[in-house]
Design goal:
Elements lengths: L3 E5 L10 H11 L3 E6 L6 H16 L2 E8 L2 H9 L6 E5 L3 H9 L5 E3 L12 H10 L2 E5 H5 L3 H21 L3 E4 L11 H10 L4 H6 L3 H13 L4 E3 L2 E2 L2
Parallel strand pairs: 1-2, 2-3, 3-4, 4-5, 5-6, 6-7
Antiparallel strand pairs: 8-9
Length: about 240
């Protein structure tokens, strides 16, 4: 089974470690590939990021994907416009309106931690149906759990379990990620999958959340970056 961590922040965004440090740690833990979720500033940052990624890939022998995590509607709109210039589009969950826009958007790959700072789970059956229709994966974010305490942790786990239940009911893809902002935050793939079972996923479903779901995203990356792909539903023969 090939394993992936598709939500990591490097020093280019809110992270503390370099791309190379994270790549080295991920390789040591047994990951086949990783995705850096950077915050978008302007298009000028893309060539520099790609150069750093290519250097780390060559040195550490691990596949690295470039992602951007939209933090608001304006960023999401801009990132949609330049969709072919990077690999993975994530949307930072926690705002109900943005959560809804994320699952309505076919170009989006992952809605990260939809329950963030919400009294409820930040996700409902309407969003679940949209996520299924548009093939948007819902994230279980390990750092959310790791950095919480006692009652707060119990509340976060309850909200995550609610979202897992909705994803299972409506057959929405689930992806489990470290959400790490340091190379020390990366976890063994088996540890990541274990939180999935804790939240209600079957063992196979939990393994799929670190392997099959990312692999399906990789297939879409290849499709979007082909010369035939123009936009969702539009391809040149």
């Amino acid at each position: 089974m090939n394993c992936y961590d598709f939500h990591i922040h490097s020093a280019f965004s809110e992270g503390e470690s370099t791309i190379e440090q994270i790549a080295k740690r991920a390789k040591l833990l047994g990951f086949k590939g990783i995705c850096f979720a950077e915050y978008f500033k302007n298009e000028d940052q893309i060539p520099k990021l790609k150069k750093e990624i290519q250097s780390a890939e060559k040195k550490e022998k691990i596949k690295i994907y470039l992602g951007f995590e939209a933090r608001n509607s304006a960023e999401l709109k801009k990132l949609k416009q330049i969709r072919k210039k990077y690999d993975v589009l994530l949307v930072r969950g926690g705002n109900l309106d943005l959560n809804r826009k994320a699952v309505e958007t076919k170009q989006v790959d992952i809605l990260t931690h939809p329950e963030l700072d919400q009294k409820n789970s930040g996700f409902n059956h309407v969003m679940a149906k949209l996520a299924r229709k548009n093939n948007v994966a819902i994230e279980i974010n390990f750092r959310q759990v790791l950095q919480s305490y006692k009652g707060t942790r119990a509340h976060i786990l309850k909200k995550m379990a609610t979202n897992v239940m909705l994803c299972k009911k409506y057959k929405v893809p689930v992806v489990i990620c470290s959400g790490g902002i340091s190379h020390l935050h990366l976890k063994d793939p088996l540890i990541l999958s274990s939180i999935g079972t804790l939240l209600g996923l079957e063992i196979k479903q939990a393994k799929d959340a670190i392997s099959k779901t990312p692999e399906n995203i990789i297939k879409m990356i290849r499709k979007r970056q082909s010369k035939k792909w123009i936009m969702p539903g539009v391809e040149i023969e």
